[in-house]
Structures are given as structure tokens and as C-alpha cells.
Amino acid sequence: MSKLNLLLVEDEALIREGLRSLLEKEHFVKAIYEASNEHEFKSQISRGIDIVLMDFRLHGTNGLELIALLKKEVSPPKVIVLTGLEGTELIVNLLKSGVHGIVYKLDGYKEIIYTIRKVIELGSFFTDKIVNIIQSNAYQWDHVPTVLLTLPEKDLLKAIADGLTTKEISISLKMTEATAETYRVRLIKKVGVHNTAGLLAYAYRNGIL
Question: In terms of pTM, does the model score above 0.70?
Fold first, then answer.
């Protein structure tokens, strides 16, 4: 394997530094760059990056939004998403975005290295867990709800998670109570759940909150 330029995208410094210290010992690593937010990410992707190791949850943005930026590059790097989230909707949305690998953080460093090697060798690689999700959702692939919400939708979700009443939400978001309730119902339909509890569960398992 030729030496690679890696970009670590992680907003928690301790995790980023720990992963860097491990990767620096690998013989196939040429250089390691880091980004903790969208601005730093944009400034690093022009450095001839071969592999992006990206956490999904990032302050002010997320992996899907950054992957969309990469598609504008002439020669986009391979992307391996590292996540502690196991929401089926999230995994399917990542797969639909064109990621080349997905590693659950709980699976550890050896799985990260194994996935990097396989992605370089094969172009993409997914573990049995991810393949099972693909197989289980093949029949509804185009109908899995998005995990990309608008800013107003995120604000509404946060207000609901904070336990605000419809009246309190309307005041906080500067809208009428009827409008706040309409937005809540629309959001429930959008993500394919049945009630507010289901909406919150969906948001937490997919890293939206």
C-alpha cells in the first residue's frame, strides 16, 4: 500500500489527538491533517487528501453536509465515517450519500485500520452489520426518511426536547401556536413516526439532537 494523506474530522480534541497518535505509527501513513469544524474542513481538503476519517456529529454541521461539499471537488477523497450512532435512517442516508466505509466507534481501532485497508484495496468496504442494514432496507431504500433537517426544524426539535409546551414553543420561535403545532405535525410525517415521543427517539438515535 502506498503512503496516504489522511484527514481526521472530529470536533472532540481528545479523540482526535488519540486517533492521530495511533495512526502516526502506521507505515502507510504519509501525513495526517485535522479539522474540527466546517471552516477547517474546507481549508484542508485541497491538500491532496486520500482518505477522510469523519465523525458524523460535529459542532455546527454533520458528516452528510461535509460529504456534499466533497462532491464539488475534482478528485474527491474516499470517506470513512466513524460514528457512535446506530440509527438505521442515519446509516442508510450515509450509504446513499456515497461513503466508502462506515465504522462504529465501539468496534475499536483495529476495525478502523482494517476498513482503511479494504477501502484502498476494493474502493469501498462495509462490515456485516452495515450489509445487514442494506439488505433489510433494500425494499424501501428510496423512502427512508432524511436525517438532514432545516434550521427551523432543528430549532423546533430542540424546543420539544427541552420540554416546552406548544405555547412556550410559539413564544420561543416567534410564531403562533397554530403554526408551531402545524410544524410539529409536518415534522412527524417527514421522518415517518407516529407521535412526539417517536420524533424525539428518531432525533436522538440519528444524532440530530
Answer: yes
